[in-house]
Amino acid sequence: MSTENALAARRRGAFLAWSAAGIAALLVLPHLIASDYLRQLVNLGLISLIVVVGLNYITGYCGQINFGQAAFWGIGAYVTALLTLQGLSFWLALPIAAIATGLASLVLGIPTLKLRAYYLAMATIGFGEIVQLVLTHWEPVTGGTSGLRGVPAIGLFGYTLQGHLQHYYFLLAWCALGLGIALRVRSSKIGRAMIALRDSEIAAEVCGVSTVNVKLLAFVLSSVYAAVAGGLYVGYVNYVSPDLFSNAQAVLFFSMLVIGGTGSAVGAVIGTIVLTALPEALRFLKEWYMVLYGVGVILMIVFLPEGVVSLARRLRRVEETAPDARVVIEQRVEAVAPRESARGVTILQVREVTQRFGGLVALDKVSMDIAAGTIHAVIGPNGSGKTTFLNALTGAYTPQSGSVTRMGVELLGMQPHRIARLGVSRTFQNIRLYRSLSALENVMVGQACRSKATLLDILAGTRRQRDEETGMREEATKALAFVGLADKAGRPAGSLAYAQQRLLEIARALATKPGVLLLDEPAAGMNANEAARLVQLIDAIRRRGVTVVLVEHNMRLVMGISDRISVFDFGRKIAEGTPDEVQGDPAVIEAYLGRSGRVVAHA
Amino acid sequence: MMQLLVSGLAMGAIYALIALGLLQIFNTVRIVNFGQGQLLMIGAFLGLSTMGQAQLPFWLAYPLTLLAMGAIGLVFMLVSYYPLRGKPFYLVILTTIAMGIILENLALIVWGPLPQSVPSPFGSAQVELFGVTIPQHVLFVFATTAVLLVAQWWFLTRTRFGRMMQATSQDMEMARLVGVRVRYTVAVAFVSGAMLAGAGGLLVAPMFLADPSMGGPLGLKAFVVSVIGGFGSLPGAVVGGLFLGVAETLAAGYISSNFRDAYAFLLMIAILFVRPRGLFGEKISERV
Question: What is the span of the domain harbouring residue B28?
Fold first, then answer.
């Protein structure tokens, strides 16, 4: 422990030293630059950085393609310019510009963020063209191609900012603020939800994350960053014209993020520096410059698809995060609180559910009562509709007819995250973890649906937010301990062994505090030892009062722990009963072994 | 009115043609090529070189241009798609954009920045139909678009190789497992997609002018057309193209031509609101 602490202390010391050196370098930088041209270039680079850090929310964290940053930047710039030209203070104009831009992004995001990723890309490009045309042709307001001149400089505490140097420090402060907020959001439940939905949208949904809302929030945040950068831009250069806010510029912002490395604030910084400096360095190439710029972008993407930051990661061997020393392995604590323990009450009532895919009937009028506090297995040959059944229960599919009620509430037609919040959670047959988040963070995504902290709490870092975060961390640690992964808390989920990934999915599902837990082939790929431990775990889950619906092919496991078994064949439920009843049922034997089959020993 | 309608339909046929090239690639590799417009622009300039500068007869110039476009399509695939297959798709979006930038600036260097006129095999001959004068070239555009649509549909649904391309788009791994040589289907998609763009370029250039910056706006229109028709649908591309051409021409004629290009994108955003899968698109759902 002490060596670990010493190591951590040394690492923290090194980090502080590097940060101090970096800040000192940033403070003296403009004094080392002689030419006004370069000073202006640096300032414009800082403005670009704000736009790119904003882009990182929707593109880096959420994995969506946004070519609208230049247009949002332009709206921010023009609204600020128009208002300050009317005599309004910069400090009033800027928030108005940010709100106007945020509203524009909302209008654009609502229809497109529900769709596949290409649609946002195309809609934002279209939006960029529209904004460009409006800025160019709406002359009475925007001044047409000649733009708006004489925009007032920014006043600060009764003092007017002048010259490149003063603006440098002013813009630097804004960059620091933008980066600080980005880091804060990233380490909050919202940041985790963003990355979760990037890694697997459906898995985020079943953990109670409203993926559309989170994407919308990220998109609005991106546009607001761009708008602020636009306001700062006109306050700095005192002039604005439409040619700057083109789609080519939007592509440039996007390239900055991708070349630097998506999903990381450091990547945004590196990419912005590289693509601000590159054009200057290549200017001597004249007409070949743009050709080589294109070639350069392709080479960078082909050889460094994860961005320049991945180089740094490759050089500095990734140190595995040490296990959290505070983790006490108090196995059987109340990690999973019982919610409905009244045994025997019907907790899920399924009536005549029919799911068709084109002409194929995947579920044919399936009815079932799932009793609280039991383990209810669903078995059947491959393709008999078991997974489809779970998908229908959790909202991944919407069946054509039938009904699924939980305590009188109709679940069919509800979005998956609503169903999850009503206490129905699940795991997946083909594992869907958030690969780039740590095991602990995976579990914490599942907890977020019960969190009370608002976006403002997160931005301000209020006590409520901090307490809640600590509480979630502790609870998630206990949940990991419950499934036996206490020592894997800091590991990226994608790096865990197969069986451990299955257990992590269970811990994540339990973190939503479900009344019903649906397990889709949890033993698949496990050896006999692991499967035996899984049986104990499922039993422990049931003893905490959680009802378990189990889809599984391992018959020994199913027959050993199930209270009740439903058997599916070709989308229909052909039998139901206790393990003994089902094993003796001729219809079941026929489904498994064919018409001439005979009962095999332990089935 | 009739005159506007005809020029709108002619524009629409061109849009449809660009969208067909876009879909040829999309329907095999599920990649939206953001450099498709620039490929079309290269086709227009190759038409200029072969017919305008080298004075070749069009029966020689057209095949030569298409052949060259096929080769360019292959290079396009090898540079922008092949090294990144299996990687996140936004990387490919960016490389296709970069390819577009490269092509546009190469065209600037080779052919210069000035718009230039490209001859049509039909010269400036016109015909009278139902009281409207129509350039013969426009009729040629209609005929070619119709033929290419039928040919593409026949190729994709009625030939073995076309079905392999469809299989590739459904599930590349699975297609490979059942013996589809994915490398060839992908190559053919890009080659034929570039050739379709080349055909579009040869047909557009005589109506307007060949100009290095013409590709960007036309490529974007192809997205709009695909969204209107439903992404992936061939009949959708044609109906969507004709619809857009007419709507845009009428709006420009009756409202204001300053915002001509904005109408198309407003239409696209409106369609995403009310019917995101377009006129002929399939329902969009994620596999679990």
Answer: 16-213
